Amino acid sequence: MKSKTKSSSELDANEFEEVLTLFFNALPDPIFVIDQTGFVIKQLGGNANEIYPFLYPFKDKLEGNNLSTLLPSHLFSTFMDTINKTINDDSLTCVDFEIANEGNILGIKNQWYQGRVFPLKQRRDDVRVVLWIAINITEQKLLELELKNLAEKDGLTGSYNRRYFTEVIQRSFLLYLRDKLPFCILMLDIDFFKAVNDNFGHDGGDKLLIALTDVFKDSIRDIDLLARYGGEEFIVLLPNTTTQKAMVVAERIRVATQQCNILHDEKSITVTVSIGVSEITVNDTSFENVTKRADIALYTAKTSGRNKVCIE
Ligand SMILES: Nc1nc2c(ncn2[C@@H]2O[C@H](COP(=O)(O)OP(=O)(O)OP(=O)(O)O)[C@@H](O)[C@H]2O)c(=O)[nH]1
What we know:
The structure is a single chain. 39% of the residues lie in helices and 25% in strands. It is of the alpha+beta class and 312 residues long. The strands form three sheets. A five-stranded antiparallel sheet has the order 2-1-5-4-3, sandwiched between helices. Strands 7-8-6-11-12 form a five-stranded mixed sheet, with helices on both faces. The chain has a two-stranded antiparallel ribbon with strand order 9-10. The termini are far apart. Bound molecules: guanosine-5'-triphosphate (GTP). Guanosine-5'-triphosphate is lined by residues 156, 189-194, 197, 202, 205-206, 209, 231-232, 302, 306. It is an enzyme of class 2 (transferase). Residues 181-312 form the GGDEF domain. InterPro entries: Diguanylate_Cyclase, GGDEF_dom, Nucleotide_cyclase, Rev_trsase/Diguanyl_cyclase.
């Protein structure tokens, strides 16, 4: 009987594995074989040190160790949740994660990765196993963050812009309809701002707007939302707040503004602010009813002498 002989173009299993290992090792993205306990069975590829700086410090320490000893606890949880989901669903799972790189020897800042995790049929000591490919997506993430920033923030002061504010107040209004969670609005307008520009130049005016943004932020809680509404007009959303408390916050902002003193070309600039306050009511049919009342209150503050807090 004629036995099957290997032709010169065929590889035996060992040779084939050798080629595959060479191939994987040449890949810039690291690939890990990890079991369901978080034990790293094998690491392949990941040779682009500049885009995989997280591998650099323990390049040779990954294999044979558990992720729990390699990753910070919050990342370890993310990895284990992803591995369990991949195995339970028996399908590809994708997860984005960020790795902090402070003090990294390569001087590279935080990096974002996407883990693409595939379930494998193989087991290690009866434990299921996955293939984890980590792809560096930092540039894409930074671009996304920059676009988000451009869409939501005001270029001069870094506070939120009117468009973002409108989105948030719309949601607050819907929450109010559902849960009756009250909220208040403060409409702020700097007094005689034109005179600041006239006396100190547009640069001086800009510098003041930036300084006042900090003053306003320092006077509100983290959950409150400050936005630049127009030129020298700002608006604050105070969630879960009723009129009485909103008046206290408005008064705090008014006093802090009066006390703010900035230097520009060795001259000091001081201003005051007028503030209109309003609270959502059961009769309101849109968030615009609330902002309209704050605007009317602001007008009253302006026409009754400025540097005042009024309510409507
Ligand atoms: N420097 C600077 N000025 C701005 C900016 N946006 C708007 N302004 C100026 O803000 C001034 C607003 O003037 P007005 O609307 O007359 O109001 P006001 O002088 O503050 O007077 P009252 O609001 O009535 O107290 C105008 O001179 C605008 O040019 C900005 O981004 N930077």
